[in-house]
Amino acid sequence: MPGSITSSLLRRKLFEPLIFRLNGSPLLRYWRELEQTQFLPEEELKNRQWQRLERMLCHVWENNSFYRERFEKAGITPESVRSPEDLQVIPLLTKEDIRKNTLRMISRDFDTAELQHYKTGGSTGKPLDVYLTEKCSELRNACARRHDRWTGWEVGEPVGAVWGNPELPKDIKGKLKNWLLNPLIYLDTMNVTEHAVKTFAAEWERAKPSLLYGHAHSLYILAEYVNKLGIKEIKPRGILSTSMMLLPNERKFIESVFGVKVTDRYGCEELSLIASECEKHEGLHLNIEHLYIEFLKEDNTPAKPGEQGKIVITDLMNYAMPFIRYQVEDMGIPSERKCSCGRGLPLMEQVTGRVADYLIRRDGSRVAGVSLIENTLTKFSGIAQLQIVQETMDQIVLLVVPALDYSGGTQYELSEYFINLFGNSVNVTIKLVDCIKPEKSGKYRFSICRIQ
Ligand SMILES: [Zn+2]
């Protein structure tokens, strides 16, 4: 009875503490601490954040030749950074900087052979190597766990995932540990068929997960199948969408099919969890306990609340391979609203898209591809799904999954819409397809700009 209350309790109260104690893992202690600190006043959390930032700046000054050199070039020392305004003088870190200097970015006294190492997915064609200590990894896991609970899920309860290329335990030991600690069933997004969805529903009935999670569009596709096939077994208590592109129309549909709210979360592989909605869904709480997050306008000055800016992050926990003022290549909107949940973690309004998803007009202005998708889907009939690929300044390809009422009119309206936005010189090609295919990582992208 893997999904029963008794099993969940056993996992939470017995297996987990036992296994963590045997492993010497500090995760439980971190997690319990984080459960407390989330309700500290915002002022107090920001003080702690600033202290952690100062500590990190001192650390890289003393122990990291890559940053020491950058600081010296910019004429700064840790002592010269006394306020958020002073931070502006620290150069921004690009993905290119990281690729060129990966090993130089490792701090003194850390041995790469002893660090956890992984490559990020590189769905924008730019994979990165990231190193961190086990302790840092445990801190991140503890934080993710706190935010997982905001969905209504409880530690020890089974989870249903809609995921591409999931990493699954291969041997008996791994499977046993999985069952003892994190029982998981999954639907592989690289191969979603009626049969696969029915199998997933049957497994759900057996394991009874309380949480359904996956990339926004994968959840949407599952919701479509569930709706079409009249499946009743998949009844999560919470739904977690970990992709940043949770389109409002898709969110509404997922919520109507499963009858529960979607919890939106934003993160990246290099830094883990960046921001997350809580049970109130009034914006995304920023993870300021682990990160220092800035929103910068085009001229690199801070965006005001409500203004869009590029997201720039300093990791306060990864001492082995520090990320200082790292340009994540996403855009978002900061907020000064307070969430009614009472947590001291400040809010951001929303992530507005990846830089790579922005299309470019002749005059150099940028258009958020996600907004174009939203506009066209709600404006024109006949389109079930749409992917925009800007090949060159004058060449836009639209991959359209037609709905039943698709017609020549739809095609004409779509072309006109893009020509109006991008100018008469643009050549719009419409290709009808059965579905929009996910990337190798299993993630979906609706808007791709190939202009470098
Ligand atoms: Zn809240």
UniProtKB/TrEMBL annotation:
Entry's transmembrane regions: none
InterPro entries attached to this UniProt entry: ANL_N_sf, CapK_Type1_Caps_Biosynth
Family matches, as Gene3D superfamilies: N-terminal domain of ligase-like
Superkingdom classification of source: Bacteria
Keyword vocabulary terms for this entry: Ligase
Molecular-function annotations in GO: ligase activity
Keyword DNA damage included in the entry's annotation: no
UniProt name for this protein: Phenylacetate--CoA ligase family protein
Organism of provenance: Oryzomonas japonica
